[in-house]
Inverse folding.
């Protein structure tokens, strides 16, 4: 399935991102979407919203009730300005109709694995800033398998969700760290 409204030119994407008030950044864990999201928010003075921190998790890695999660997402997307960091196709129906631009961080799986492992080493036993308080960093074989299988199992769901809930939302796929750096340069990286 092809993206209907894909943007392939980084300069054009940067122009569109600069004028957007509501941006969705998604992709596989370990791909760098949270780091990219926070840098874009600093460039554009957009409020940063981590789905993990604000919607999904309660202290002690307790999953938030689905109805409460959806209510929190609906309230947040009703706001005028945000950048939401997180994929979660189950809430595309709430987020995509309000999204003005999608960045899909689509790194090779080996890079996502490396990113997740190096993050785990860096934050082991502590909660990272984009995670809910009381959820110390951890890594296990299920999580690594999730990353390994992400492109095969979850990318098709993303494509279907984009087509169904955001067919006219422009999407830029970032497939390398070099593309991410170039985009940030075009946006005017914060000092």
């Amino acid at each position: 399935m092809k993206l209907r409204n894909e943007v392939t030119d980084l300069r054009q994407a940067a122009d569109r991102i600069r004028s957007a008030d509501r941006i969705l950044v998604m992709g596989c864990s370990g791909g760098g979407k949270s780091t990219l999201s926070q840098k874009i928010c600093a460039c554009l003075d957009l409020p940063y919203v981590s789905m993990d921190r604000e919607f999904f998790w309660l202290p002690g890695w307790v999953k938030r009730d689905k109805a409460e999660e959806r209510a929190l997402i609906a309230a947040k997307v009703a706001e005028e300005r945000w950048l939401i960091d997180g994929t979660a196709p189950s809430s595309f129906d709430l987020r995509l109709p309000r999204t003005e631009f999608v960045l899909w961080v689509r790194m090779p799986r080996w890079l996502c694995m490396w990113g997740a492992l190096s993050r785990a080493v860096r934050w082991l036993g502590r909660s990272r800033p984009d995670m809910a308080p009381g959820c110390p960093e951890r890594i296990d074989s299920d999580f690594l398998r999730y990353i390994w299988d992400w492109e095969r199992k979850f990318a098709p769901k993303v494509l279907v969700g984009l087509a169904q809930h955001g067919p006219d939302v422009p999407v830029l796929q970032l497939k390398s760290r070099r593309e991410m750096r170039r985009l940030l340069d075009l946006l005017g990286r914060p000092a």
Residues 23 and 101 are 5 Å apart (CA to CA).
